[in-house]
Amino acid sequence: MTRFLTSAALVLALAAPAMAETLQFKVLGQPVATGKILNELEKPFFENFAAETGLDATAAFSPVDTTGIKDPEGLRIAKGGLFDIVSLRFSPISRDAPVALGLDLVGQNADYAAAKKSTELFLPEVEKVFAEQFDTKLLGVWPFGPQILFCKPEIKSLADVKGLKVRVFDQSMANFIASLGGTAVPLPFSETQQALQRGIVDCALTGPSSANAAGWPEVTTTELPLGFTVAFNGYGMNMKRWNALSADQQEKMQAAFTRLTDKIWARSEELYTEALRCNAGQTPCALKSYNLKIVEPTESDLAAVKDALKNISFPAWKEICDQATPGCSDAWMSTIGADRGF
């Protein structure tokens, strides 16, 4: 009887399906200073990863500025597998992958509608390059919103940037500032508030909600609501981890990130208009209220940014992108360039 029971138990054990192991992912997120988008959407998504994805999975989430990792290293981190999922900031990572800037050259995206069109047209090229050159599956993109100018000295138009030092975050922006007679100063977002306070830079570019969260209005006087770019971000997964998922798991994962990025697009647009008001002490306001002066863009300001795409940002980017990825500018011209009448 003992031998019989033992044999029966063994047969049942062999016949039973193996228990699936819980999927575990290490996630590198946005900087803490980015505020609402991080706290309301990105962080809760990863903290409730199983419910959000419908997978038996957990995510260990770390904001990038708590790790010692710098923003420009995002694609390298994803490719190397140090983190399985990385919240990629496209301007900094464009040093490794210039194709990322093709979504958001200066003068290309004045508003959310233009930004959405850019992703529809050029995102497939970015996805292909990330996969082939960086072993990274791009799961979705979203914009922080129009990147506008904050200045410590009072300015009345873009013409007043001449002679000033301006914090920028990519080469496309640096070229445009130089065309205005300003001095472009590349600085990480986390260092910019102190740089403004100490006079290392006179002006800086970011979105109104990011500036609000990071306290830039405490050390500036003026905001110029003229969108130079929209500052795209995205979520990349190490390709080996992606390929290790079953087809069903991949479908659920992709669907979850599509829902997340759709929510961020909508929230980003809400935050943009609200933060503009709050930075100027206007109501209604659910963010921190400041007292900046809003300087409305002049017709020449609007024209300068619009013309920058054809005359400054695309020509400079074209050579750099083609060196890194042959055919890059041709892909842009046949999609976004054709759409913009180039």
TrEMBL record:
Subcellular localization: Periplasm
Superkingdom per UniProt: Bacteria
A biological process from GO: transmembrane transport
InterPro entries named among the record's database cross-references: DctP_fam (IPR018389), TRAP_DctP_sf (IPR038404)
Gene Ontology, cellular component aspect: periplasmic space
Coiled coil: none
PANTHER family: PTHR33376, SIALIC ACID-BINDING PERIPLASMIC PROTEIN SIAP
Signal peptide: 1-20
Entry annotated with the keyword Signal: yes
Organism: Paenirhodobacter huangdaonensis
Keywords: Periplasm, Signal
Protein name: ABC transporter substrate-binding protein
Presence of the UniProt keyword Signal in the record: yes
